[in-house]
## 1
Amino acid sequence: MSESLPAVRTFLDAFGRKDVDAALAVVDDAVTVTVHPLGVAGGGIADLRTVLTDIVTAFPDLRVTVAGILDTPPSVTAEFTVEGTQAADYVGVINQEKHLDVDQAWQFAVADGRITDVRAYWCQAQLYRRLAVKRFDQIAIV
């Protein structure tokens, strides 16, 4: 086990508890953030806070289920599912009170016990399907 793993586990545990501040407590202030589905490239800690806060706000019954963590220094890759019922607008989709479960993979770099790089991946098309979006530019009313 590398020394990077505890920081990633702390981050994911806090995210699963919907505690954004605790998740960010193990993130370096100079973190580089890339969230491919949202078009965030070279972002910083404010972008990561926004992503986490938006998820926690939109899905108050949020569950983060970790399927696996691959520890391959210098990076750690976590595969998990984000699941909950939409209760607020999220990534441009109006609140439809739909259940969501989206598989995600996030890759982390850690130095001196602090997360210094985050790269988040998920299928945006799957997210939109789960939230009942027929087309990316038209919300389905069901």
## 2
Amino acid sequence: MMPTSPPKPKALPAMWEAHLADHVIALAWSPNGVWLAAAEVSGPISLFATATGQRCWRVDGHGFGTTALAWRPDGAVLCSAGLDGNIRWWDTATGTECLRLAGGATWVEQLTWTPGDRTSGALLASGAGRKLRLWNRDGQPVQAYTDAAGTISAVHWVPGLSPADPGPPLLISAAGSTLTLWLTDRPEPLHTYHAQGAIIALAWRRDRRVIAAGKQDARVQTWTFPAQSDLMMHGYTTKVRELAWEARGHWLATDGSPVVIVWDWRTGTPDGSAPISLDAHLDLVSALAFQHHGPDLASGGIDSRVYLWNMAQGEHPLAYSKLAAPISQVAWSPDDALLAIGADDGMVRVCAIHSEG
């Protein structure tokens, strides 16, 4: 009997498209999913209505370029960071700038609000050069941490180290080959860990036990808490910039190759086991995102394609979307029903998704 060919992936129809003037450096959904914000690498920021794709407003953003977007948890304010050294707060309803904060260095590259429903006690973390700072929901300074050993390359919130008694959120930051854990109420590090090689990306497993780091030397290193044991994963052809955990923590998807390399964490660490290779892209993978709650993984590539995968459905893509330029961003809406795609030529496309599992 001849082996059956895998089913061809279906094309994902676009719900709407918008054309920006430059490379899409960031996409961010509002907490209620009503708005999608998009930033161009040269600075301008646009806000779109999710239902129609109508552009509600466009602002110049940051001189020299915008680097990051982050929504305040109540959705009333969109924050942005840029190469002018500032953190700017934009009123969602009007697009007017309502606050400007100094990040502490020439450029601000990291910007992230505390996860979850923390409307009244929300905190904004910013990383600028060696400066890691905290701000409250009104933009008042809360903490200025001890300077990092080098330029901060990644910042990630951790919802406490113990699932049984999580306590207040913590921050993890990466600078060079150093990984540092911080409390919100003291400027000195809580713990410092040392990697083998410079870290350029971080992703925290939701069960609060594992932090994964993508590295400049084409490897992935993970630390398991509270034992603090570490594991090194190899097999990449270039630096690892994109990391994505599946919602239950079963799978860790990574770039660093023309294939999506996925590590299986269902029965413990993947130590000694070979990863799964999701092979469809014709060039390097450039963007990755698992759904917030569902099973689907979106991967974007330099080949201008986005593929949709489901680990429970096998190792073949279920759907795809073809654009005209390399993919720079993929982002799931809060309810996982929509996928936003950004490209190097300024294209923003939103697709409706029917989950397969």
## 3
Amino acid sequence: MREQRDLVIPCAGAGLPATLTLPSGELVGLIVTLHPASDGSRDQPLMAHLASVAPSLGVAVLRYDRRSQEEGRGVPFDLQLDDLHHALAIAGSECGGVPVGLWGFSQGAWIAVMAASERAFFGLVLIGFSAVSPAEQMRFGTAEQLRRAGYGEDVEAELGRLRGAWEAFQRGQLARDELQASIDRVAAEPWFELSWVPREAPDQATWRDMDFDATPFMERLACPVLALYGERDEWVPVEECVRRWHALPAAAALVEVGVFADAPHDLASPSDPDLPDPRYERALIDWLMRRAPAALD
């Protein structure tokens, strides 16, 4: 039987509910999970799946709820990183000195790479990690939504102009009324909701991390990395991300990249979207069996 402990992680201005799942036998390692932008719950399906399989290998899993975010604003990356530091402190007090790894999905993979560039971990598991900036990733993702919905190049060009105005406003290069005018021109179009631009322009910039560059953090990684992607990822430019991984000097020794044919961003099973792809589970377990015990050597 696995043991579960309910915890609270004290952070700056917040107490984050958490669940620590421990193996019934020997504890050889611990993994802390990090959230996608779309789901800040510790019960996010891939996180819950990790907590169901890792303890059987002697690896505990700490999951916590991301702090609340204001409407239309994400939680800034530096604040998420600070919250992770508090989570790691709690993990250390609960699990002693066992080796610690990080697991991050989508946005959470950015936070994991940031953290691993500044301290040692036994490894990182990254799902749908975008090696391009959030702004570039969203340009790709929204255009892909249009293509999959059957829209042509003319609509994609309109989307590009709208996203360009949105980004310019966020960078302080475009006035609010000019952004609102760009929105008003296309807001009645049936594709507008796929643009991920709000109907009403905010009063001020809301996207602090839009030009975040992961490359310097990737270059400083000194631990093993398992980076997994779905070939049909609807939000991340997989080919470009894989190219950037392979371009790292340490890639051959540290980085394992897997791309699953016909799989989406969240690596859902083709037979049941509520379950992870079995290929992901096999790759995850294989990597943990090779990497987590080795961290004790």
## 4
Amino acid sequence: MLIAPLHPDHHHAAIQLWHDAGLTRPWNDPAQDLRRAVAGAASTVLAGLEAETLVATAMVGHDGHRGWIYYLAVRVDARGLGHGRAIMQACEEWLAARHVPKLNVMVRDDNSTALGFYTSIGYTPNDVVVLSRRLG
């Protein structure tokens, strides 16, 4: 799998992958999220490609101290082949190249598959509560 910044030709496929993976929510517009990420100086969306076909994505960004991963997705028919690990490693390398010392991942507490994946690659739960507020 080749990993590179998501090309505009693959934007629609990325959004479809996020829908298929159950990562989207009615109150978030994934197209707007994608546009903000690729336009930002401190963020990007990485694509995992096999023969020009999008099989994995991860949105990665940082605030200077903490990196964050969103929209990590692997096509159902490509799971179990190491693509999730590979794209996470690419995100870690992207952040390390920018001297970001920590990486956080938010996972919904009912997503046992994702929790199992992240635990298997060395991520541990933190005793924190995430608070949010919608703006606008």
